[in-house]
Amino acid sequence: MANRYHLQLLASLFEYPDADYHDRVGDIKDILSGRYSDATAELERFIELLPVNDLQKMQELFTRSFDVQAVTTLDVGYVLFGDDYKRGILLANLNREHRHAGIDTGTELADYIPNLLRLMAVIEDEEVLQDLAYAILAPALLEMIGEFSTDRIQKRNKSYKKHYKTLIETPAVAVEAVTLYQFALKSLYAVLKQDFALIETMPLQRSNDFLASVSRENEIEEAATTHS
User: Fold this and answer.
1) SS3 labels along the chain
2) Residue 193 sits in which domain range?
3) What is the pTM of this model?
4) Domains contained in the chain, number
């Protein structure tokens, strides 16, 4: 896989939407079209649901998916390991690789999906690239996609409501659009399946349950507040 520029482009799919976001997504679809048919189909579904003429709603959908009272997180180390020490080891290793590749991770951590994709687009060590694809990104994506199921969203919202007493209002969009980012994640996973063929046949284990992590965090926070 000599040219991995498409991974660099895919990174912007998971950045906070700005005025040019819809155009960038369209450019990504054009790049994928013809070579990645499954990924293109998922991305077309994402574009269909994206409220292209309302930047605020696009931003709210991003925030509701990945930030505040989120469906999941874009920090793959947390998805896989939660607060376990293994995430610290992963971050240390990724920080080293980012520095070596000359990548500025900005205000996000080294395991943030856009940062990880930019690293994978330029990294020269084939063995490390394979590890990032098979052991880190692919299993994390499966976990993240699973978090968008109706059952998991309902349980998560119940947990959030229990601990925060209220839920952030869902953006006024079509029901299907509330979970539109699952199609962006599925598109990325479809790209990985083609670029790294063994992903399609390897049994990838779900390493961590984001909902369980959310519940544990809420319980810890509640206990700290009670005893303070």
Assistant:
1) CCCCHHHHHHHHHHCCCCCCHHHHHHHHHHHHCCCCHHHHHHHHHHHHHCCCCCHHHHHHHHHHHHCCCCCCCCEHHHHHHCCCHHHHHHHHHHHHHHHHHCCCCCCCCCCEHHHHHHHHHHCCCHHHHHHHHHHHHHHHHHHHHHCCCHHHHHHHHHHHHHHHCCCCCCCCCCHHHHHCHHHHHHHHHHHHHHHCHHHHCCCCCCCCCHHHHHHHHHHHHHHHHHHC
2) 5-227
3) 0.84
4) 1
